[in-house]
Design brief:
This protein is of the alpha+beta class and 295 residues long. It is built from six helices and 13 strands. The longest helix has 21 residues.
Length: 295
Amino acid sequence: MPTLYLPLGSAEAYGQMGELIVYQGVACRKYTIPKDPRSGAQLDVRHLFYDITKMVRAAADWPRANFYTAFGRYWYCGIYKRITENSRAVWNALLEDERLEGTGYEETWEESAPFKATYNDPNLVWPIVYFACWDWAEEVGVGLYGAPYWEEVESKAEMATWWAKDLVGVMMSGKFDDDHPTIGYYAYQGWEPPITDGSAYGGKFHQSLPTGWRQWVTDVYGKTIKIGYTKKSNYGVLELTVDNETPLQISQYNSTTLYQQITTHTCPHKGLHHLYASRTGSGSMTLDSIEVLNN
């Protein structure tokens, strides 16, 4: 573009002047009206972009945080790109996917959709967006935390319920005792009753039985996670997996009893993280506290 000199070559010269567009008093170009033919192909792209992004935007805090963990900082644009790149390869593949049939479901996909698609068939946009996110999360090894598996749900509305889930009750930015209600699923099944001990955080801690499959599971929102536990001579190893990262081997053995021991794990970024802990080898494992930090 042409270089400008005074008076147009001024910091105060910008915008349209006659048939010229001036850029901060440095350069200019001829004013032109952009072409917008609104062809069928062009409108198809715009309409699909509108419906997909509106459907994604309808997601509440839980799925959004999950997408950040699974797909990265630019998850919002990434989901649209994932579905439409390579001549809509994912979109076209999911059109033939048996999951869209919904065998045994009484309601249509449109009835359960969190956003009623405007331009494209709402019975296609909602399940394609959902299953595209599901497949992508599985591919990167993270998964959609707490989302219903499609073969097990009794209603498509269960998927929409997950899409509308918030983060109320999730451990975030604080220190929590071992009886926090979000330590769920089969947590503490087959464990001993909580052990009361004034030296433990909150005056008690959980101890598993020394044999059999023992585990606890929970979700947290933050970046740094600190696991508190007790060490004893009859304790073994707690294996902690955060998201799809390499499991941490946390030895809880010590010849003498040590309370409120801490192992710290820092995730790549702040977000929703899934914690899975299991007992490995011989001996019991313990949990005393979980602390979540935002940095």
